[in-house]
Specification:
The structure holds 2 protein chains of 2 kinds. By secondary structure, chain A is an all-alpha fold. Helix content of chain A is about 65%, strand content about 0%. By secondary structure, chain B is an alpha+beta fold. In chain B, helix 6 (about 185-195) packs across helix 9. The chains are: A mainly alpha, B alpha+beta. The complex binds protoporphyrin IX containing FE, iron/sulfur cluster and FE2/S2 (inorganic) cluster. Chain B: Keywords: 2Fe-2S, 3Fe-4S, 4Fe-4S, Iron, Iron-sulfur, Metal-binding, Oxidoreductase, Tricarboxylic acid cycle.
Amino acid sequence: MSLNKEATDATAIGDVEGVTLYDVDHPAPVIEAPRKRTKKTPKATRGNFEMYGWLFMRLSGIVLVVLVLGHLLIQLVLDGGVSKIGFAFVAGRWASPFWQAWDLIMLWLAMLHGANGLRTIINDYAERDNTRFWLKMLLYTATVFTVLLGTLVIFTFDPNIR
Amino acid sequence: MATPVLDKVEAESAASPYITVTFRIRRFNPEISDEAIWEDFRIDIDPKERVLDGLHKIKWDLDGSLTFRRSCAHGICGSDAMRINGKNRLACKTLIKDINPEKPITVEPIKGLTVLKDLVVDMEPFFQAYRDVMPFLITEGNEPTRERLQSPEDRERFDDTTKCILCAACTSSCPVFWNDGQYFGPAAIVNAHRFIFDSRDEAGEQRLEILNDRDGVWRCRTTFNCTDACPRGIEVTKAIQEVKRALITRRF
Ligand code: HEM
Ligand code: SF4
Ligand code: FES
């Protein structure tokens, strides 16, 4: 019996089948779940931020259906389609507070809706905390810049500029 | 003891119900390799038998090292959820004839959890989320001398979510859970739902607050994978939506 055991010990798989990296005493590392919950994982969050975010996506979505589809219709389909768009066309529309308001609301809603949607996607797909943080910073910067620039243009647009 | 022999002869002379089926199984053994591989097994089996019977045949007759969990073998313990032909199911509730035995039947471990060996995964993150929602009756004040009464209507309110067997088919079919193990996952929400809408329970508010978390119900994207996967036919996505609605109506 003891001889038998010695024999098995001596002929560990490595000897017979060439080099093996893993055996009973040195198992391969298993692939951890994507982000395992550890001691360092942040504690539960308080407040209703995610709830308001979720509600905002639905409510802004409903308003965007009207604003965006109307926008596309006016810009691309009606009255000669896309070829009619030019400086004069924009100047003509923004002379009316109604279209100013339309475009302003659409800008804000679409940007915040799109930004929050991208935030969700970054949260899902970024693997490392650092990557996630910087992608979100890039997203927020781009969003704030676009919203502010767009708002500025809508309010200070000067049809007589040369 | 002669009878079995006779039976066998008889069975062979009759038209055999057996067909040859290929099982393509995802194998992983960390004591041999860090790679998971597909391995094919061809077995003769009655198509009215279940995938679990096929796995048994393989383990008992062909390769004893094949590793999987099962306990009751009748769809009630929740041990043998696996990805069969790309869909999460219980091996003990899936008939061979229902999943096109002409083609190889693929069997993989459920996704999003650490594979320990072959079809066995580490269920700890799944049960951690389950424990987090406090899946037990919580009440205040004195205990009644007899049972806690409930009207049939009140019982009906959460009947669907009492059927859960914690097999993890839903949670491991959810893409949000796949790319981020932090999400509570459908099963934890189903089991919170079971107590939140129980008229006898008094900690619904606490459970709602737990699921109001960053990784709670708001991460659900309504893909319905969970409802499709549930072997108990629970309307999982609906339960999640009901928790969302309870959270919103509580605030407004
Ligand atoms: C036309 C009207 C629109 C409606 C009704 C709508 C509706 C929605 C809803 C309800 C969600 C949440 C999905 C979920 O939580 O599962 C969503 C997500 C999203 N929306 Fe919109 N949306 C609209 C327009 C837009 C526009 C114009 C943009 C881009 C600026 C946009 C970008 C996104 C993004 C990036 C997401 C995240 C996708 C995801 O969660 O996987 N949407 N949308
Ligand atoms: S809800 Fe259905 S799929 Fe999810 S763990 Fe319970 S029984 Fe399994
Ligand atoms: S073995 Fe118990 S549910 Fe399948």
